[in-house]
Structure formats: C-alpha cells, structure tokens
Amino acid sequence: MITFTLKGVDDAIERLTQLPEKIQKRSVRRAARAAMKIVRDDAVDRANQIDDPNTPRNTADFIVIREGTIKGRREGGIVMRVGVMGGARYDKNSPNPTQWRFVELGTERSRARPFMRPALDNNVPDVIQTFVDVLNDELNKELV
Fold this sequence. Notes:
Elements lengths: L9 H7 L4 H30 L12 E5 L1 H7 L4 E5 L15 H6 L11 H5 L2 H19 L2
Helix pairs in contact: 2-6
C-alpha cells in the first residue's frame, strides 16, 4: 500500500474547510477519482501489452477504480483504489481473471512482469497535479 500526503495546498484546504462536510467529501471524492483514472488507464494499457490470448479473460477488462469505504472511515478520509476485480485470490471457476497475480508478482517458475505497480509509480506527479487541479475546480464551483 502506498500513502500520499499532500503539502503546499494550504489555500485549497482553507477553502475546503469553509464548505459543509458533505460537499467537502464530494469534492475530494471527485478529485481523487479523476486522479486515479490516470493510474487505471495506464494499468489497462500495460495489461493489454502483456495479456496472454490463451487465457479465457482479458485482465485489462477487469481493472477498476473503487472507493475504500471501510478504510476511509477508519482513516477519516477518502480512499481510492485501483485494482483488478476479484482481488488476488485464485479460483479457476471465478468470473474474474485470477491469473493476473501470477503475472504481477511472478512465481517460482516465471519472473514477475508487473503492470499495476508501475502504473502508479510512473504517474505520481500527474496524479497529484490532477487531484489538485480537479479539487480547485470543484472548490471554485462550490464557492461562487
């Protein structure tokens, strides 16, 4: 798990605290989802590049953005996750692709070919900038 702390956005945070809590969460949720779309799109591109046509399902079709509601409540904020539907469990009868974890993490017989981790690692500046831009746009709409 990777956690980010934004610094230098004091103006946005000050403007955010002027809004009711419901609108605060909605604005942050929209900004987080827009920022994570960059990671999802990159993960889809990477998954398509390494997809094995002999497998019954294309992993890229199952990469999604989800809000981590339980963790968000525990942490007291908004948590957005990008992942593969079905998680990393292995079940050959699952409607979700389960072979992706062997590609991402590797096995004792095959090397890892990660596509999820680099999707975030290579896009951190873009994700942060998109989050800040969308949050500022949302605040400008609400504080007019």
